[in-house]
């Protein structure tokens, strides 16, 4: 179950970073879209972390879906802008978190099937 804690920690930190990134986008550029997108996606990840305390498989599924959704959004932005900050960093971070959560979810499913 140590892997579950690693996934919960990664997803929680990821959610907080998304919220902070949205706030930074608002402060620097007055971008309400960044603020709302960061709050919604970060809030979903924090909520998925909370859910994973009782139902790890469901929480990891929601967290990975959010991460892969953001990967799609930010790969498009990175291709258009070629800027490492924020598009490249959020893209890489989202891919890492999404893949990690899916691997952990698959491990949980295997453990429950045994």
What does this structure look like?
This protein has 114 residues and is mainly alpha-helical. The chain has one domain. The chain contains 4 helices and no strands. The longest helix is centred in the last third of the chain and has 30 residues, at 84-113. It is elongated, with a radius of gyration of 15 Å. The mean pLDDT is 95.
As for the number of domains, it is 1
Give a short account of the largest sheet.
none
Q: Rounded to an integer, what's the Rg over CA atoms?
A: 15 Å
Q: Stretches where pLDDT falls below 50 for ≥5 residues?
A: none
Shape: elongated
Strand content: under 5%
E-strand count:
0
Mean pLDDT: 95
Fraction of residues in helix: over 70%
Distance between the termini: 15 Å
The SS-based structural class is mainly alpha
SSE series: HHHH
Number of helices: 4
